[in-house]
Structures are given as structure tokens and as C-alpha cells.
Amino acid sequence: MPSAVAPNVAPVKVLIIGGSYGGLGAALNLLDFSKGKYSRFSGKVGNDPKAGPESRVPVQIKIVDERDGYYHLIGSPLGLASTPHAEKFWTKFDEIIALRDPSITVAQGSAVNINATTKTATIFDSKSGKEYEEKYDFLVAASGLRREKQVVPQEKTKDKYLVEAAKQIAAVGVGEGVKNGKGVVVIGGGAVGIEMASELAVVHPTQRITLIHSHDRLLSSEPLPIEVANLCLTSLREQGVEVVLGQRVESSVEVEEGKYKLRLSNGNERTAGFVIWAISKQHPSTDYLPKEVHNSESGLVVIKDTLHFNAPGPFSTNHFAIGDLVQWSGIKRCGAAMHMGFLAANNIYQEILVSRGVKKEPTYLTYPEVPAMIALACGKQAISYSVEDGAKVGEDIMEVFFNDDLGFMICWNYLQLGTPSAEIEKGNTEKDIQILEEQVNDLSVKEKMIAGAVISAA
Known about the structure:
Layout lengths: L11 E6 L3 H14 L24 E7 L3 E3 L4 H4 L3 H6 L1 E3 L11 E12 L4 E6 L5 E5 L2 E4 L3 E3 L10 H16 L2 H7 L1 E4 L3 H13 L5 E5 L12 H13 L3 E4 L3 E8 L2 E6 L4 E4 L1 E4 L4 E3 L16 E2 L16 E3 L4 E2 L6 H22 L18 E5 L2 E6 L3 E5 H7 L6 H8 L6 H4 L4 H22 L7
């Protein structure tokens, strides 16, 4: 039977700023809760028998994102090196089946400011070029970090993004300088630089790829043991990538088309056919939020373990922040963002039930402190590290964390973006449910490893 919601009740308005891993995780899990279904991250499917009619509440979820689609951000090293993957990694929001629900709307634009007292957001509409006011009952800030070009596309529409990606793919693959043997130089030996260099080596095996890092070890900015850095170094060199450590690139000048001259800190000069800057220049996308919710130095949003803003006054309730823009322990990863989205959805739903008189007190789920852990794609194999399991490397690690598309289908299936919200509501056979549960449970194991947190059900 369809899971009906309470009739003649005004829907709860939830505004989500950001439509990536965390934002979509929050929206879709909240949609599940509101219809009396198991959360899609719970490892179960179908209607939750514990959710009575009074627990089914109408919601109106609005997602605002600068892009016109969901972009698989962690796949950028491959998407900016391979044309088929560039096309695959960006899906317009109106093409995502899971979002075709009357309770969800998506608007292309950006938040300008938030008034927590009146629960009103000023939104800039990208299509009209005008601003408008949006009322909300709950707000989720999930707008992430702004990253530099070459490592993440800057365009906001799929059509323009494909042009941007095509230019970089051509430059690293068939550009004049690259073809003439000067190769590609990747500057920066963090996670992004390692993956950029290794993906280029796989996609363009005949090209000369060089990675230059200013420190004496790779991953020098991450709280990881030297063993992880050494595994990355060995893997890169096995793929034919030349790795230069302990030298800073002081200047990079395009002296003519397809020819760059680089000057290193030791005075040496190098030439390249194309240069990719993979230095960590990223800034929280939080300009629309007031200063009192930020860390004054980092700009990250300070939160409680329930994901509420850790700020006085009206921001202390009904306002949540998730994903890369929050100040929290652990290395920022898409798995953590999705898990935060689930927790925010649960906690919003709990507050809705209390406000409707269904419960006396909310049953919050909290986000734990997260130890350092990482999974890196390095060519045809991957390297993982966690405190429990230590450092591992191999093609089997690649299969678990990334498969052959840098995790695109893992994330897509875990969010269930290709599944219409009504599919389970209209009833499944026992066999259908068993298949879905097996798929979800399999992905939950991978997600637990990536997120570093148990994906628990409310």
C-alpha cells in the first residue's frame, strides 16, 4: 500500500543549500522518513512498520545549487582526463529519477544571505539573474568548498562544463606540447595531485607525466603515517610517473603555445607541454552565513555533534551544516558528507515529530569524532588507510572503494539516485526486496569504510 502522509497539514519547508553528496543525502533520507519508509541508508527497504500514520508528515524540500546538476566531485581526476567519464560524471538534476518527487524541487542559484530570526533566505536565481526570498522551517548548509580550476570544473552548466573538460582533456592528451614529448607536469603531491597524475598515466600511458611536490614526502599536509606516503610514491613510479620531491615550483610561464617553462626552488628549469596546479587552494562556500557561525580563521562552520550550528541565538535551532564546510575531525571525504546528510535528515525529522506532538523529545543521532583515514586511487590500484586496518594497497582495494569509475556508481547507487521514490511505496515482491537489501547492504560496507562511521538507522 502507498505510504500516505497526513492530510490537510501544511508541509514543513526544508531548504538545503548545496546539491552534492551531503545535500542529496539529507534531502532523500528526509523524504524517506517523511513517508514512513526506511531510510535509504539504513540497509533496509520498504515501509517501516514502526512508523504509524502520525509519523508520516508532508515536507517540501528545496535544493539550491550553483550547478544545474549533480557532479561526481571525487571523480574529477578521471573526468578531466577522459571524455567518456566527463560526460558520465555530470547528471542534470532534472534527469535524476530520485528527485522526481512532488516533495522535492531543485533551483539553480546560490544563497546570498540567511536571516535566522525570520527563517528567510535570500537566493540568487542563476537563470533570471534576480534575487528572491525563500521562507523555510529548517535549513541545511551543504555548499561545500570552492576549489581551483584544473582540479575541479568551474562551469555551472553541463554544456559549458563539457567544453571546459574537453579543452583540458585535449591539452593533456593531444596538445602540441604534450605530443612533442614535453609531457604534463602536475604540481602538488597531496591527494588530488597524486590522483591527477596517476589517472593521466592510466588514460595516456605514452605521455610523460611528472609530479612535483615541495615537501620531502607526499601527502605532507595530511595526518597520515609515512607508510601511506611511501606506498603512493612507489605506486606512482610503478606507473611511470616521475616524482620530484623537495622542490617548489616558483614560476610557471607559457612561453609559447604548448610550451611552459618552470623554475624550481633549486634553480633548475623544466619544460612542459601542459601544467596542472593541484595545490590545495580551497575556501568554504559560506559567504551567505553570518560571521558568528564561522571559525574566524578557517571560515568553516562550527557545529555540534548533532550537526546543529554551534552558535547562540536563533541559529542554535533549526539550522544544520554538513559536509566539507564544517569544522570537524578527520579528512574531508564524500562518504562522511553523505553520512552527515543522513544524520541531519534524521534529526530534522525528529524535531518535526516533536513539533507535531508525535513525540515529547527528539531522538538525535550524533556524529562521532573521526580519526584520520583515506582511500586514494593510484592508477589501477588503490591505497587505503585506517587506524584499525593500517595501510593497504592493491587492485582489490581499488574495487572496494572506487571500482573502475572513481566511485561514481558506488555513490550513485548508495544515494539511490536512479530509483524513483514511489517504487518501494507501491509494493515489492519478497524477491525484489531481497535483491535491494543485498545491494544496499553491500554498499553500506563500502560506505562505512569511506565514512569512518557506522551507517545506523533511526
